[in-house]
Amino acid sequence: METRVPTSLLSPFALALPAGRPRPEARYRDRVRRASRRWLGVALLALLAGCSSQAPQPGFEQPPASVKQQLVTLMPAGTQDRDGWATDITAAFAAQNLPATRENLCATLAVIGQESTFDADPQVPHLARIAREEIERRAEALHVPGFLLAAGLKLTSPTGETYAERLDRVRSERQLSELYEDFISMAPLGQELFGGLNPVHTGGPMQVSVAFAEAHAAGYPYPIDDSIRHEVFTRRGGVYFGIAHLLGYPAHYTDLRYRFADYNAGWYASRNAAFQAAVSQLSGIPLALDGDLIIPGSRQAGQTELAVRTLKGRLGMDDGEIRDALEKEDSLDFERTALYEKVRSLAEQQEGQPTPYARLPGIKLESPKITRNLTTAWFAKRVEARWQQCMRR
Fold it and tell me: Which domain of life does this protein belong to (predicted)?
């Protein structure tokens, strides 16, 4: 079964799959046809700016000082170092040439509030225990004797403490990531347990994926402290890449919940989930509405692709053409394929009503940190509630 690994809430032991994969799309806007309606059109564009295309629009430019002042007033009561947060957020919007609308600023603040409650290096309850259990689990899976693991953890790390001492006092993912970096370099045990890969995949105040940040490092406006990974765990870096993940791709969404869901489940997950729902309606085959149209990194056909193949007679397409279209799941180009257009058209004919462009993906969030039954839809709605609170401030 195809299962999309959510972008956030999975650290410190998220699966090593690319989170927040680049999925660029574009926003089409109807041209205002009558001069008498020009100002209404401008007002509507301003209202929808936070939910649609994030490309800079005429009239949205604000002086950085004005953006910063607005951010200070929009932050939740009790936020520490409001000026510092506002500075880093303002710089991120300016560096990425994103429209600093009230909607977009509140969307950013809502995600920060949900992911870290405005803590640049958020602490994770019971992280030391979770980390130790993960190390022991990996050791057992690799048949590493317990005495050998214990001996390795008693070795002195580059900080002068033993690895066990550092492990016992880790409270944040930044600390854990740094510990793993040192531990991995300890050959051969560290290499055997983690294969040279740091298992902490997300972090910082917006819980952004390290892989996403590394893929979008071009244009990063600050000196890099050793690595992009290290930058993710700083406030300035975490905010910069988090905003890129949240707003750095245009979308047709008219409801911010879908953008928030994409932040958790990956770019375009909400649009692709709606496509999967249409395929399921047409084929009668139940599908996991997770937003993954193909199995990442594999030529093997997954559930969605197999279901689409049952429709190829009605679509007038062969398996190769279907595969070529589905491989465009990460871009706006998918919406321009014959497959996308025909599936939506057939679904509309069958249901007798327009097919939704997006729907919240049905993904259960799983991680050692999560003890409740949480989903991507839960995440999106929680962030939306924070966004609404911000808009009312």
Answer: Bacteria
